[in-house]
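Deviation from plan, reported transparently: iron/sulfur cluster complex.
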Amino acid sequence: MTPLRHDWSRNEIEALFDLPFPELLHRAASVHRAHFDPAEVQVSTLLSVKTGGCPEDCAYCPQAQRYHTGVEATKLMSTEAVVEKARQAKAAGASRFCMGAAWRSPHDRDIPKVAAMIREVKALGLETCATLGMLSNTQAHALRDAGLDYYNHNLDTAPEFYGEIIHTREMQDRLDTLAHVRDAGMKTCSGGIVGMGESRSQRAGLLQALANLPAHPDSVPINRLVEVQGTPLGDAHTSTLLDPFEFVRTIAVARIMMPKSMVRLSAGRETMSDELQALCFAAGANSIFYGEKLLTTGNPDTERDMALFARLGLRPMQIENATDHAIDACSTTVHAGITAAA
Ligand code: SF4
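Because the crystal trials were delayed, the predicted structure below was used instead.
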């Protein structure tokens, strides 16, 4: 077993990125096998319970109200409607259900509404996950008391590149929210987005910031920028600069640094070839988003996913008491960028 570390230096991480590609994949695959069955992939889905109209300015996000992306702002769904979706997810084999809302942070008046959703989803026998933006300590405890198991909040990018992407909140705000989530006893889901024009060293910086948190996130979503017309990054066409092999390297280094975390392919998967996804699985990715929609961007349809699993000899990961078709309806991409919430 690889010991968990929280003291990674930038030089060490860059040295991993610089390894010959086969050597990097070998090391990552070895770490993967030490902690997981490499034939299993966790499958996640997500319900956007409140879409668009966000006051933040994340340069990749179609849900920011200041950008003209055609995303229509919606009100918070009713508890009944959310519970019906959760029932459907459970009937399809889900063991965990994630609710995402495009908020900078929930108002205190929103918390009882979300808490009611969490309680009712939990009563169905599902694990619960949410991504609602920044949380205060009090809000985190209230959500935990309602039965929330997981909370997603992404760091997005390296600290030194962060100011190029977001101006309406600080990296420290994100770290504070993750601390509140941990303090409340919930599990964390946190990752970032690559292909936004950052350097390799800055990609290393994102992974450094994640791995050197007091606890590794339980899930680490690695999003590849989805260029959405109307957003600053969508109009700048920066993602064309990211070499697919560089994306695989990022996955492999994340696996080596955070050996027990679920490394998740999230937004951007719909533009990846089957071959690229296969390389990501070989490099230690063991979780994907599954379904038609990833909040406001597309996702490969489920038939293509299952066909790819069959071709690669992979199977959906069983989650605790879940069935053969276990689907983890968890978020991860939402506010982390690209799609939905903060
Ligand atoms: S990523 Fe989240 S916080 Fe940023 S604009 Fe989109 S919904 Fe708002």
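The mean pLDDT is 88. We consider this an acceptable substitute for the interim report.
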